[in-house]
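Entry 14. Structure prediction run on the chain below.
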Amino acid sequence: MKTRPSSYHRSIADQPTTNRRHLYLGQIQRCYLFRGAKQKLLDALLAAGRVELYMPQVEIVSEGEHVNDLNVLLQGSVEILNPRLTSSLAASGVADDLLLEGGATTHGGRRQLLQPGDCFSEVSFFTQIPNLEVCLIMRSFFRMRFR
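Output returned:
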C-alpha cells in the first residue's frame, strides 16, 4: 500500500524553484548521478521533480516491476533487498548463522540501507528491464521522482 503525498509536500510542489532549491538541492547534489552537474540542470530537475511522502514498512518498488520513475531519497531511509539472490543462497544450504533478517547473507548477499541523497531503481529506469530488487521503506521518507 503506497500513501499519497502529504498536503505539505503538495504545496511545496507549487512553490517557485528557489524554495525547492533551498529545501532539496543538497540531497540532489549528493546523488551520484548529478554530482558536478551545472546549476541550470539541477534547477530544471527540481522544477520537474515531484516530492512524495511514504510511511514505514511499505514496499515502494517490487521485484519484477517496470520502473518509470527515477527516485532520489530526500529524507528517511530505504532498504534494498535482492530476493532472488538471498533466496537462492538460502536454498543452496548457506548456514543459518550467516543469514541476516530478510534472508540476506553476511558475505555477498544483496542488502543495502539507503540514506538521503541516494537514488534507487535507477538501472531499471534507464535500461527498461524489470526491477530485480525490492525497495522497502524503513523510516518515513520523502522521495523526489522524475519522469
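The beta strands are 50-54, 59-61, 70-81, 111-114, 119-120, 134-146.
Filed with the rest of this week's runs.
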